[in-house]
C-alpha cells in the first residue's frame, strides 16, 4: 500500500466514527419512528436484494472502477475472506453463528432443541427458530465493513481513471447503505447486538488497513530494495 493509501486510512477514521454514531443515533431515536413503515419490514425489496446481497454489490462497485491493479484485488480478496468467515463459513458455522451458539443460543422446533444444528440458515431451512443467544447484527457488520472498504479503495482509483458512471454508482450505493444502517439501528436488534455488529465491522477494517496491509507493503518494499 502506498503512502497516499496510508494517508487515506487516517482520513477514514472520521467516517468510521460517523458510522458508529449513526448506529447510536438510530437506536436512541427508535421510539420516535413510525411503527408501520416500509423499512421496518425485513422483507422489503431493498433489504432483500441490496443489503442481503451486499458483498455482491461491493464487488460490482469495485469492478466498476475498471481497476487492473493487482494489489487492489489482493486486498479485496483478503477483505472478502474476513466477510466470508464472519457471515458464511468458518471451518463449520460462521463466526456470527458461533457467537450465537457460544452465548447460549440454539435452534428450537416445537419447543425441542435441535441438537447438532449450529447455523441459522440450516435452522430456518428445517423450520426451526434461532433463539436464545447473542445475535450479532450481520447488517451492521456488513454495511459498515463494506462501506469503509469502498471509502478506502475507490476514491484514489477514480482519481487515476475518471469514470462518471462508477462515481454515481458507488455514491448511490454508499448513500443507500448509510440509510439502511440507520434503519437497521432503528428497527432491528437490541443495543448489544448492534454494538457487536458495529465492533466487528470496524475491527476488520482497522486490522487490515492499519496492521496487515501496511506491514505487507513494508515487507514488499524492503525486498524490492534488497533485490
Automatic annotation (TrEMBL):
It is a multi-pass membrane protein. It comes from Syncephalastrum racemosum. It comes from the Eukaryota. Keywords: Endoplasmic reticulum, Hydrolase, Lipid metabolism, Membrane, Transmembrane, Transmembrane helix. One of its GO terms (cellular component) is endoplasmic reticulum membrane. One of its GO terms (biological process) is phospholipid biosynthetic process. The chain crosses the membrane at residues 12-29, 49-66, 168-188, 194-213. InterPro entries: FIT (IPR019388). GO terms for molecular function: coenzyme A diphosphatase activity. This is Inositol phospholipid synthesis and fat-storage-inducing TM-domain-containing protein.
